[in-house]
Write a structure and sequence with these properties.
The protein is an all-alpha fold and about 350 residues long. The chain is built from 14 helices and 2 strands, in the order αββααααααααααααα. Helix 1 crosses helix 7, helix 3 packs antiparallel against helix 8 and helix 6 packs antiparallel against helix 7.
Length: about 350
């Protein structure tokens, strides 16, 4: 257990220091996010904090390997070719704005190869589907989650908070179900959590550094793999509860835009949490509400493992609470300007 704490602290401290250095470096290189009509921030903010997170994760995993904390290190290291490819294409997007016709095929190729390499004989349908259909479903779900995680990274702190909760949830779930810890799921979760805590110090409102696509795409890839592994070991309900707010907000927004015949593939700022921010709620307040919901969803997920007979009831509670917060954000009343402000 002490080794886990050391790795967690190492990942957090290293990420904190690297992200601090990246603020200056990315600023000088003009790799920045400038305010636009769909932005939810003021001022020019460096983007690319994902680089610091990935480096901190890599070094921390080497430390975990040194402590012999990983039973099957091939699983972890097989992740990194995909991470490296996605990081390069995503960072090019951060700098130059890579077109969708380039980014999406690269993501698809990485996910297809990773499904074969990492999931192997694991079946997310548990034999209910033919192998080709099972693999196709895994690819579609993984690809959707990668882009969903990227779409939802729209205000300060939101993706770091969501990523920490998912990673900790995977760690706890794996510890409850799998007979022996540590596993690659557990170690990877601790490393992700620590690296995101270090980054969050610079990304909490008012943010001094953004993840960038290099962070959000690669985190979506890694977390998506972890969630698929949970599904493969029978914990599909945990894989549904942990990212439920992201799944609900992104999916609802997509369906609503399609119903309105909008160009849903274009960037926008119509997510529920973005509506709340535009109507006067601070980034910190909105993310705090999402964090509170995520903690409740994490508790529901763990209890569903401990008490299988309550699984469906706990799922219903999770869906209901998520729907309530999403609708609350969408229908929140605009914050009234003060009399002094309105006179200016």
């Amino acid at each position: 257990m002490l080794e886990f704490v050391i790795i967690l602290v190492c990942a957090a401290v290293m990420s904190y220091v690297l992200c601090f250095g990246l603020i200056a470096i990315l600023g000088r290189l003009r790799v920045v996010d400038k305010p636009s009509k769909r932005s939810n921030h003021d001022g020019t903010i460096p983007r690319g904090g994902g680089i610091g997170i990935l480096v901190a994760m890599g070094v921390s995993l080497l430390l975990a390997d040194y402590f012999s904390l990983v039973q099957d290190d091939a699983v972890i290291w097989n992740l990194f070719p995909g991470v490296a490819i996605l990081a390069v294409i995503s960072f090019l997007d951060d700098i130059f704005g890579a077109p969708v016709w380039l980014r999406l095929p690269v993501q698809a190729c990485v996910v297809v190869a990773s499904t074969h390499l990492l999931l192997g004989d694991l079946s997310i349908s548990h034999g209910e589907l033919p192998e080709w259909a099972d693999n196709a479903l895994a690819v579609l779900l993984w690809l959707w989650f990668i882009n969903l995680f990227n779409f939802m990274d729209g205000i300060d702190g939101i993706s770091a908070v969501q990523g920490i909760v998912i990673a900790l949830g995977v760690f706890l779930a794996a510890g409850l179900v799998l007979p022996v810890l540590p596993t690659e799921l557990g170690v990877l979760s601790i490393v992700i959590s620590g690296a995101l805590v270090g980054f969050l110090a610079w990304n909490w409102h008012p943010a001094k550094l953004f993840l960038g696509d290099v962070g959000s795409i690669t985190l979506g890839y890694i977390l998506g793999f972890q969630l698929l592994e949970l599904v493969a070991i029978g914990l599909w309900y945990v894989a549904l509860l942990l990212p439920m707010y992201y799944l609900a907000d992104a999916t609802y927004t997509l369906v609503r835009r399609m119903a309105r015949r909008e160009k849903f593939w274009h960037p926008h700022s119509n997510h529920a949490y973005q509506v709340a921010v535009r109507r006067g709620r601070s980034h910190a307040r909105v993310v705090s509400r999402i964090l509170l919901l995520n903690i409740v969803l994490l508790i529901l997920a763990i209890n569903a493992i401990i008490h299988p007979s309550l699984m469906w009831a706990l799922l219903v509670v999770g869906v209901g609470l998520t729907a309530l917060l999403t609708l609350r954000f969408l229908h929140i009343a605009p914050k009234k300007k003060s009399r002094k402000t309105s006179m200016l």
